[in-house]
């Protein structure tokens, strides 16, 4: 991995993942330009970075062109939680598609490397388990999750067309469910919901019967994987799955959170949202072989600092 200092643009840099990535890259000695329109975040996530001499914040919506000079681009901008990406679905698709076009145009002009934060959602409700990168997915094109899933799929298409047409230096990471400190307490994703509910003594809302599965990756592991992929040999375009193969049912997650918080909350069952995938687990053979990467942090180890964060940062 190259250690020379680079000018690195992170779109969505004030978000959950973007803020951790910003911090890590600053610690490695790089200049970080954080671009965000604060659609699903606030300056609070990056407040501790604002005085850093190598950190710059720009309020900007990636659906509009951006002219800056950079060496690398992490394209992270996009609401990631179902309740947020379904709030304004047209804007979600625009962010993925127009955002990808604008950032790929920037990468083409500056000859920068560009990494796309794609998602396990491109596999939809998968019929192949665990999911390998060569699986094309099972996605509803007209459902309530489609603005996100199809937006991300189209962004992947754009990345590979820029590669074929313009030889742009692309990397595509398919990120599986990631959690950790700085998720928004009202984000709606399962880990933050369950921890908040448990800490406040509210009922834990399980959608469906709770037998659907997810594989949860701690944010520090994921950030390692993203940086390794960005700095990998140029021919490695991906898509590469990045996630923790440890698979849990949603009910198991709820029980773990209750035990670890010492909560007296009860489980309640609510209807399963439309097109909610029944199972999800990454096959990370490629990441292991090509990036020498695999997660090191178990769910229990990662939940501890996440619970501590919510305990101390949320009243
Ligand atoms: P997040 O919502 O915390 O962060 C997204 C950031 O993008 C926010 O700061 C938001 O304000 C910003 N943003 C949204 N639209 C924008 C626009 N048009 N212009 C500029 N900024 C904009 O979500 P996250 O969990 O940090 O996810 C980051 C990226 O990783 C997303 O692209 C998401 O799809 C992808 N991803 C995340 C996960 C996960 O589990 N966290 C899984 C798969 C993929
Ligand atoms: N989920 C749940 N209760 C909640 C929030 C989510 O049971 O309060 C379920 C949701 O239906 C899904 C899983 O947890 O099956 C993961 O949901 P999340 O929104 O975190 O991510 P995604 O569905 O995008 O993987």
Strands, helices and their partners?
Elements: E1 7-11, H1 16-27, E2 31-36, E3 55-59, E4 72-75, H2 82-85, H3 89-110, E5 113-119, H4 146-166, E6 169-175, E7 178-179, H5 190-200, E8 204-207, E9 213-215, E10 217-218, H6 219-230, E11 240-242, E12 247-249, H7 250-261, E13 267-270, H8 285-291, H9 299-313
Parallel strand pairs: 1-2, 1-4, 2-3, 4-5, 5-6, 6-11, 7-10, 8-13
Antiparallel strand pairs: 9-12
Helix pairs in contact: 1-6, 3-4, 5-7, 5-9, 7-9
Bound molecules: nicotinamide-adenine-dinucleotide and uridine-5'-diphosphate.
List keywords for this structure.
Rossmann fold; 7-stranded parallel sheet; binds uridine-5'-diphosphate; two-stranded parallel ribbon; 9 helices; binds nicotinamide-adenine-dinucleotide; alpha/beta; 315 residues
Query: Helical element count?
Result: 9
CATH architecture descriptor text: 3-Layer(aba) Sandwich
Radius of gyration: 19 Å
CATH class: Alpha Beta
CATH topology: Rossmann fold
What best-fitting shape do the alpha-carbon axes yield?
globular
Mean pLDDT figure: 96
Question: What would you call the structural class?
Answer: alpha/beta
| Chain oligomer state | single chain
Major sheet: order of its strands?
3-2-1-4-5-6-11
Ligands and ions found: nicotinamide-adenine-dinucleotide, uridine-5'-diphosphate
CATH superfamily membership: NAD(P)-binding Rossmann-like Domain
Largest pleated sheet? 7 strands, parallel
Number of domains: 1
Order of helices and strands: EHEEEHHEHEEHEEEHEEHEHH
Strand content: 15-25%
> How many β-strands, per DSSP?
13
Uncertain stretches = none
Q: Classify the helix fraction into a percent range.
A: 25-40%
């Amino acid at each position: 991995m190259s250690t020379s200092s680079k000018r690195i643009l992170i779109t969505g840099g004030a978000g959950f993942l973007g803020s951790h990535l910003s911090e890590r890259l600053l610690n490695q000695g790089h200049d970080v330009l954080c671009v965000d329109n604060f659609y699903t975040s606030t300056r609070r996530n990056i407040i501790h970075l604002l005085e850093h001499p190598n950190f710059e914040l720009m309020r900007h919506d990636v659906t509009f062109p951006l002219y800056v000079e950079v060496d690398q681009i992490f394209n992270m901008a996009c609401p990631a939680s179902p309740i947020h990406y379904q709030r304004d679905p047209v804007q979600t698709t625009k962010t993925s598609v127009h955002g990808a076009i604008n950032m790929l145009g920037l990468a083409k002009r500056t000859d920068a490397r560009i990494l796309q934060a794609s998602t396990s959602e491109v596999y939809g409700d998968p019929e192949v388990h665990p999911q390998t990168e060569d699986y094309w997915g099972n996605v509803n094109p007209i459902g309530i999750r489609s603005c996100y899933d199809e937006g991300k799929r189209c962004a992947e298409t754009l990345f590979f067309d820029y590669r074929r047409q313009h030889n742009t230096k692309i990397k595509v990471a398919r990120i599986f469910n990631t959690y950790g400190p700085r998720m928004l307490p009202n984000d709606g994703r399962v880990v933050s919901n369950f921890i908040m509910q448990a800490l406040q003594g509210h009922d834990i809302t399980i959608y469906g019967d709770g037998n659907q599965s997810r594989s949860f990756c701690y944010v520090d592991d994921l950030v390692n994987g993203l940086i390794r992929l960005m700095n990998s040999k140029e021919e490695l375009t991906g898509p590469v799955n990045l996630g923790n193969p440890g698979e849990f049912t949603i009910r198991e997650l709820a029980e773990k959170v209750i035990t670890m918080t010492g909560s007296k909350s009860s489980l309640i069952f609510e209807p399963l949202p439309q097109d909610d995938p029944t199972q999800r687990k990454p096959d990370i053979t490629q990441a292991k072989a090509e990036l020498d990467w695999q997660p090191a942090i178990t769910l229990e180890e990662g939940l501890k600092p996440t619970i501590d964060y919510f305990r101390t940062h949320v009243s």
